[in-house]
Amino acid sequence: MTGAFDPIHLGHLRITQSLIDTVPLDEVVFVPLPKPEHRAPSASIKHRRNMVQKAIDGSGNLSMPDLNLKTESFALLNIVRGVKNLNKGARIFFIIGADRLQGIALWPHLNELFSLCELIVCPRDGRNPLDLEKSVRALGAGTHIAGDTGVFIAAELVRAQIRLLNDAPEMLLPDVAEYIAANGLYQPDYLARLKGGLGIDRLAHTVSVRETAVYLARVHGVCMQKAGVAGILHDCAKDMPLPELRKIALKHRLTDNAEILASAALLHGIVGAFLTQTTFNVHDPDILNAVRYHTMGRPKMSMLELCIFVADAIEPRRSRISGLDDIRTMALEDLRAAALMCLLSTKQHLLSHGRSYSLQSQAVIDDLSQSVMV
What domains lie within the chain, and their CATH numbers? Predict the structure, then answer.
């Protein structure tokens, strides 16, 4: 089966499993195309291959060989030859949707192609299967019409759901949805837009927070796509100097708290939430709150807010927080307890160095302490 797999979804997997059971087939080989003829893929070939691998891991009858296809030369004949060479003596079938048969008579090297493989045609658009079989057989192809699997999932619909910050569980395997969120696929390229305002180390931290937040979101049943967006944007104002942060905060009346206005460490989350909405055009309230409170926290934080708050503290590049290993372990069990451990560790560190501690963060400690035993 060839295609863009942009991304691979449950429709692909259900169809192939149906064919394995009914034709029957010993194995289905997935071949993501570098650049399909019908459209330019949204995700790179590397990401699409990685998603396919995530989807087929652990399956004994699904595979993805590396045929080393070049963007400018991936003729179907070359693909079939490559698969044939990897499976000496095997009977090869090419799985194709009926909608892709238009113009089949003009395909190059038809005679040689049909000498190497037979076709399995998956009906679509209400076309008569018998007419399909007759027309293709007339060209010399060994042709089999697949039964109706009752499955219709278009990758375009999947991408639309991702853009709407939906993990699309009815369309995607969790491993694939997690990969999409952790890499920011099918969303605006926020990372590219951040490069002008954040330093190299801050960008690396930001990417690491996104990956960690998405993983925590999956563990705790939180929307991974929202965690990915909040994670990548949480520090969008971090490298701004304090005077600039204060100017934005005062101009747009984001806060009048003197303690917060005097500290870039406290103010960048508030300004970051403002920029997330106005500059990056993200309007989801939960994402905006996750960015706003990722440093200080707040009482009654949502699960998404907790994901970002904890991910910011425990991402793999972090090493200075006291008890970090214990916090990382707790983060997989109880996000509220992990957040409380982070706050207590930070408070102890600041006070031990003679520095003041945020009254707002103390309020969060008091709130979490009522429901968490650490």
Answer: 2-156 (3.40.50.620), 233-369 (1.10.3210.10)
